[in-house]
Amino acid sequence: MPGSGTDSSKAWAGGGPLVVLVEPQLGENIGAAARAMGNFGLSRLRIVNPRQGWPDPRAHVFCAGADRILEAATLHPDLRDALDGISFAVAATARERGMAKPVMGADTTAAEARTRLAAGEDVALVFGRERTGLYTEEVSLCDVILTLPVNPAFASLNLGTCVAVVAYEWYKAETGGALPFAPPERSVLAQKQDLFAFFDHVERELAEAAFFRSPEKQPSTIRNIRNIFHRIALSKQDLATLHGMVTALVEGRAGREARKAAHNEAAAARRGKTLAPQRSVRTLEDE
Fold first, then answer.
1. Tens digits of per-residue pLDDT, 27-37?
2. What are the structural domains, with CATH classification, of the chain?
3. pLDDT, tens digit, for every residue of 183-210?
4. Does the keyword Methyltransferase belong to this entry (predicted)?
5. Cα–Cα–Cα angle for 67, 73, 76, nearest 5°?
6. Is the pLDDT of residue 108 over 90?
7. What's the DSSP call for residue 286?
8. Bond into 55 cis (ω within 30)
9. Environment class of 35 (CB within 10 Å of its CB; exposed 0-12, middle 13-18, buried 19+)
10. Residue 116 phi/psi, 5° resolution?
11. The dihedral sign for the CA sequence 84, 90, 94, 95
12. Which of 70, 29, 26 shows the shortest CA–CA distance to 52?
């Protein structure tokens, strides 16, 4: 059943680039990263030498239902081993490393990954430790550097957040930015005769309420009121609601109560007519 944006009846999106977490310090952050992967259609996870061991129950708590990603994750002793079978590796870092490597944003990385995966290559997105990030030696093992346009005075991102931003750009590129749902269709637009009937209703009740205090200004005031509703592009349902609002304002509470009482009396009268007369039944004791 759907809940909080989760619907287990729908197919699970997977594939995409591989995610590598190098020596993550907290199981909570591994879980948060797996959750972000699940949110944005990434399913393959490799973990390098996690500091608190593996498996880690805290990761399952923080993955919020993305357990399948954690259960399929593989454990590796170092980054070299984790990059086995990878053709193109991307090193995520917030610091300039002085290396002659291309530097890409998350959107450019997503586009590059899609192109390479389509060509049969395998791609890895490599994320470093929470406190120190990737070591320079580890960055040197990758083909390009991935960085984000963050506040230079506070550039350190939480591991799960960093994975989420990159995974979001991947999934946006993969799906063409298609949103999961669209606004509901509006009811049919009101025809002019429906709109004119509403104008008559409003103007009649405004006149009864002495709204038009200046006869000279009444025509221009009426035009302004009509133009307000013309700009809204009202539907038939909108007009029905507005008619009801005007009627309720005119009647007031006393009028509504009187109408309700009259309705109840009429209903009671109809019920009385349908009741069959009761026939008395004689028993042996009555004899």
1. 999 999 999 99
2. 18-175 (3.40.1280.10), 192-266 (no CATH)
3. 777 778 899 999 999 999 999 999 998 9
4. yes
5. 150
6. yes
7. G
8. yes
9. buried
10. -70, -40
11. positive
12. 26
